[in-house]
Amino acid sequence: MSRCRTPRIAGSLLLCAAACWTGALPVARADSAVTLRYKFVPGEILTYRMTTVSKSFTTIAGQADTRQTSTTSYQSHYVVHSVDAAGNATMSVLFDPGHATDVKNGKATHRIVPPEQLSSPADACIQENDGTQYCVYRGGYGLNDIGQVAVVPVPVGGTWNSVIDNTWAVDNPTPVTLHNTLKTITSSAQGRVANVDTAQQLTGTSKYDAGGKHYAMTVHGSEFGTWGFGIDSGVFLSESVKQTIASTGTVTDKKGTHAISLQQESTTTMQLTSTKGDVVRPLGRGYTTKTLNPTGVSYAISYPSSWQTTQGKSGNYQIESPDKNGLIFGFSVQSTTGDVTNPAYVTQFLRTLGTPMGTITSTLRNIGGQQYGIVDAIVRFTRQPVEAQCEVRVRSDGHNVTVLIGIVSLGPPGLGTRPSNLAREYEQIQRSLDSVVLAA
Questions:
Q1: How does pLDDT run across 271-326, given as a tens digit for each residue?
Q2: Helices and strands (H, E) in the chain, number of each type
Q3: Which of 78, 187, 94 has its CA nearest to residue 131?
Q4: Residue 277: which of 96, 78, 128 has the closest Cα?
Q5: Which class in CATH covers the domain with range 12-277?
């Protein structure tokens, strides 16, 4: 699941014009590459109107076919809490109750959908300025996880790939690659708009038990969407995405094994309806902190007071969450050749944990007056059957190299679900790593 918003222009008339405008102004010049980057503002609230129309057709040998259509409408609110120096935001994603109409074999029913059934509300999403989003898993800003922009300037007709976690119901899921194309650049009342196509395909097997029955399926899935992004405003404006799933296989019940086929199709739309500022609200639920001065190192680090610390020798330590899904550990080594500006040097510390899955992101950040080389990736651990979201920060003073590592467990490979408090623990780890200061 993901989100959007509108350019920051004060006044309801301009916002209404942006939301209601359907025609295109003259096409902007597109003979040169453009830079696409999200631009977040602390305290901003972006509200979107969401609609999903889902259709399914199920055939089981020896039974009557089933046809079902469901239409769900609701609003989502993206609340930006803070923005770091690199332009990445921490935000909440909230939902109003939805309204659904279900039609099964011609009979219609209406219901109210609680927010937690619409998606996964989160009070501490990490939203990067390229559109990658970490709430409960690694996804994209928009619905169905589209909305990741190119990391380099791109011309009309230019393409780029982006990677998200695999949340499809398949066995042994691996990260999914989305293929993006900048189709056109148009002008609107609020500036230039990049119109992007995104597509992906997926094939896998799915074995599961439900309702006392065992299913063994082969799944073929595809997704195609178009979305609008404000080049000048840095705002995700709208999307329309169609997702199809064709599953064939067998279902086994008390009467035997039967052939089954399931055709599913969903069309989702997302439209920015308002943008407004607000007093920045506290991030998530408040928590108290403690401070650790690791033995043998020249810095202090703050951490949630409910987490447990263990210290070793020569500045080695770890800080672990009560549920043991979150972990911070640090160590220092003597070295005069630590080059934190070299991503390959920093990545070697990440690879000591296991095998990175998909894209490794790297950046340089100045935190508390100190330069850090930072890499981030999902890692499949070598010594344990676990995947985890891992961030490594490395700092060098020319004599010693300080390494800080934050880990949030995503569970065993292929689990298909993520810990419910993933986003919160990831945010707490980020705050702790940001708190590191040199001792006086």
A1: 998 887 644 444 444 578 888 888 877 788 888 889 999 987 766 899 999 988 88
A2: 4, 24
A3: 78
A4: 78
A5: mainly beta
pLDDT tens digits, one per residue of 158-203: 999 999 887 666 777 778 899 999 999 998 877 899 999 999 988 8
Pairing of strands 317-320, 308-311: antiparallel
**All residues at 6 or more sequence positions from 429 whose CB lies less than 8 Å from its CB, including other chains:** 326, 328, 391, 406, 407, 408
CB–CB of 16/22 below 8 Å?
Answer: no
Residue 326 token pair: 């979150």
Contact indicator for 261, 58 with CB cutoff of 8 Å: yes
Q: For the whole prediction, is pTM greater than 0.70? A: no
H/E segment holding residue 124: strand 122-127
Asked if 407 and 425 touch (Cβ cutoff 8 Å), the reply is no
Decide: 390 and 347 in contact? Cβ < 8 Å.
no
Domain spans of the chain, in order of start: 12-277, 289-438
Distance separating alpha carbons of residues 149 and 163, to the nearest angstrom? 11
* Cβ–Cβ under 8 Å, residues 303 and 292: yes
Do 393 and 403 touch, CB atoms closer than 8 A?
yes
Residues in the chain: 440
Query: Rounded to an integer, what distance in angstroms lies between the CA atom of residue 138 and that of residue 410?
Result: 11
Place of tokens 């997302």: 270
Looking at CATH, the fold of the domain delimited by 289-438 is given as Protein Transport Mog1p; Chain A (3.40.1000)
Stated as kind and residue range, the H or E segment containing 177 is strand 176-188
Same topology between domain 12-277 and domain 289-438: no
In whole angstroms, give the CA distance from residue 46 to residue 168. 28
In three-state form (DSSP H/G/I as H, E/B as E, the rest C), the secondary structure along 41-56 is CCCEEEEEEEEEEEEE
Alpha helices in 318-417 (DSSP H): 343-351
